[in-house]
Design a protein that fits this description.
The chain is α/β, with parallel strands linked by helices. The protein is built from twelve helices and eleven strands. It has helices at 6-27, 34-47, 58-68, 86-93, 115-118, 138-147, 201-210, 232-242, 245-263, 291-300, 330-338, 350-361, and strands at residues 51-55, 76-79, 97-100, 123-126, 154-156, 164-165, 168-169, 176-180, 194-198, 284-287, 339-342. The protein has a four-stranded mixed β-sheet, sandwiched between helices. It has a three-stranded parallel β-sheet with strand order 3-2-4, with helices on one face. Strand 6 and strand 7 form a beta hairpin. The longest helix is centred in the N-terminal third of the chain and has 22 residues, at 6-27. The chain is globular and about 65 Å long.
Length: 365
Amino acid sequence: MEFIDLKTQQSRIRESIDRRLAAVLDHGRYILGPEVSELEAALCQFVDCQQTIGVSSGTDSLLIALMALDIGPGDEVITVPYTWISTAEVIALTGATPVFIDIQPDTWNMDPSLLKAAITEKTKAIMPVGIYGQTSDMAAINRIAEEAGGIPVIEDAAQSFGATHHGARSGGLGTIGSTSFFPSKPLGGYGDGGAIFVNDEALAEKMRWIHLHGQSGKNHHPILGLNGRLDSMQAAVVLAKLEIFEEEIELRKQVGDYYSELLAGAGIVTPFVAEGNTSVYAQYTLLSDEREKMQERLKASEIPSVSYYAVPLHLQPVFSGLGYRKGDFPVTERIADQGLSLPMSPYVTRSDQEKIAEVILTCTS
């Protein structure tokens, strides 16, 4: 059993992938070829934003966003400790300081009720994360950011891309939106890639400069940048996947709903989708005090599972200098101790889900 079934998806779109990749090989524009601009236009329409910039990875999309906002030493960026390290890593790479606040006990995303108290005169951005497939409470976060003087909000939508928040698409909910095309993501390529979404023309132009070594025109580099371009081949793959993405979002919901139905009332905490939100179930993650037992029994049945973010960011050695200690973020630490992600993709069969649920339920009976 696959943890993420990319083979079934590929079989559905193989003809489109082959055709698009062949076109890249024929025209030979492997960097910034026409597929990149075609994908950017398609994603603008999908997200309903003015500008999309294809970039080399989800990590680079966040870094470019911070650089475009001139964030650096002496600045603070508020984020959460329950996420992949990229979110805080890019803050530190600019020389700024990551400031963590805890997550909500139900959605496992940034807790807006803790945000206002964390804002200082050094706060230059807020970076919420759409963990496991649904967005943070972006309406509340944006309101607090605006009341605090218009602090930019960078939406890390690597896992929530395709989801909605009060009818608006993830990626288009903040000052700048970011996503990843890592293969395991809801909309992924066959390598690294990502995209940035923005409605501010000046910011978009600056981010385009940054992703091309700070270049505004041939042989003219007014600012520092990086090699952050999206390859034409990755753009071609994502374009092929985008053709069926809407259908896959619905299939993901069906898989997630069926898991929750099978596991209901078993002493297991299943994913909660907040009012006004939809989820793309980037992962299907449950909480249980019996996590280790579940993993062992699933493994014995040849069923893969993953404990994501088992060591949250505030307890990672690289961030020890920030001064956080165990117990500082109790909700994060509880979720990190209990979270277990099950096989998830649009193509998980009901029979496989029933087999998985049967094994899990033996641990709670």
